[in-house]
Description:
Blueprint lengths: L15 E3 L2 H5 L5 E4 L3 E3 L4 E2 L9 E4 L1 E2 L21 E5 L5 E4 L25 E3 L5 E4 L3 H31 L32 H39 L20 H6 L2 H9 L3 H14 L1
Antiparallel strand pairs: 1-2, 2-6, 3-4, 3-10, 5-7, 7-8, 8-9
Amino acid sequence: MPTCYFQNGQEATGSKSPCNETAVAEGKHSSCCNTSHQCLTNGLCRDPHQEPAENYYWRIGCTDPTFQDPACPRYCPGYSETTYLVWKCQESEKWCCNGGAVAPLDQRIHRSNTSCCSVNDLVFPAPEPVVYATAAPHSTAFTRSTIAFTVKTSKLKSVSKLDSFMTTSVAPKISTTPPSVSDSASMTTLPISAYIPAASSTSNRLAIGLGVSAAVLFLITIGVILCSLRRRKAVKAGDAPQPIEAFEIPGQQYSEMTGEGISELMGSDCVELLAEGTKENQIAQLCDNLSTQS
């Protein structure tokens, strides 16, 4: 940061900044003013809060410690080693040095003072007051340039991310929640959101109904299969040979048998029936009856 100096060659104290930053960047000299004060083309300074009727200005400093550069305000030499108060006279390009102790602020505001304009030793010529800049710390100006460059770089990175997203993603993940606030670094860029609202409640009810219907249909199918299996088992059980109950009434069914039928039941058949233990008394009686009939 360039250094400002008072007219006596000492380094300026307090918040003093060069007015012409372009000249300083090119290696040239510039007048200096209090930070945030207005810089005039004649090298003087003015408080921006002053009223137009107030005709006092300040000589502050210069980046040239010798005050020999034309940009330096070489006014009122010898009257003060540091800053100094000067007044604008009513005549064009006529100014005067304060010539004594600086009047208190309450004696300078809301009024104009031209008393020194009648003292020839205090009068000096200078261009009319034209404001061309506002004194600002050189570090602030540099910071602004850096921020502007950073924003531009961030925008380029954001475009690069967008191109990568557009060309490489096949099935982007759909988010049902709004995007969160990005960190402070991402505030210089425009975040790309893939936010899509969630499905409506009607769609949810339809999906639930379809799921319940499918479950009921599945249970019905299982029930039909089980019933079919039970019926098949029942049919197979009906085909099995039943116990011989015809012998409960001896001679009723077999009384009609004659000839070959009677002879077939004779002998080994009776023995087999007895061997199986099937109603021994009835079979024995049947066999006796058959033997008698034969």
